[in-house]
Amino acid sequence: MGTLPVDGCDEVKQTNEIGMAIPVLDALDIAGKTITADALLTQRTLADYLRARGAHYVFTVKDNQPTLLADIRLCFERRGQPDFREPPTLAHGRIEQRAIWTTACLNDYRDFPGVDQAFAIERHTVEKKTGKTSTETVYGVTSHPHKVDPENRTVV
Question: Domain locations in the chain?
């Protein structure tokens, strides 16, 4: 929760993160920038706002956007080899490895504004002390029209 001033007076009103995002961004020059957000802010209103301001977005997609999530999962159901897999790294007592798959299968998706790519990121983790392994897959969308080469961090 946060507070926002009410125009023309000393009052403030309570609001949540969604209600805070656009007023915070209003004060910033975001044209040409990429705004990333977790699933809570993966909202059509914010996507439209960012596009109107000349910015791109990268949003994670979870259960608050069930249709979009189902469509992305369907795109990656038989995903094959990843577009990029990083080498294993040791951090915080864990061995981690990530892989990313990207697709333009939702480019003409009309239920969510501006989608140009969808992605799936798989994180494989091994706890060094216990040997316990876990795998997590995160899905998302971006308005970026070009594929990014994750290994070289360049746009192709």
Answer: 34-155
In single-letter form, the type of residue at position 42 comes to T
Residue 64 carries which DSSP code? T
Q: Measured between alpha carbons, how far is 125 from 116 in angstroms, rounded to an integer?
A: 29
User: Other C-beta atoms within 10 Å of 106: how many?
Assistant: 19
Q: State residue 11's pLDDT score.
A: 54
What is the DSSP pairing of strand 94-103 with strand 12-15?
unpaired
Q: Which pLDDT tens digit goes with each residue over 120-129?
A: 999 999 999 9
What average pLDDT does the segment 43-55 reach? 95
CA distance linking residue 16 with residue 69, whole number of Å: 23
Instruction: Please give the model's pTM, rounded to 2 decimal places.
Output: 0.80
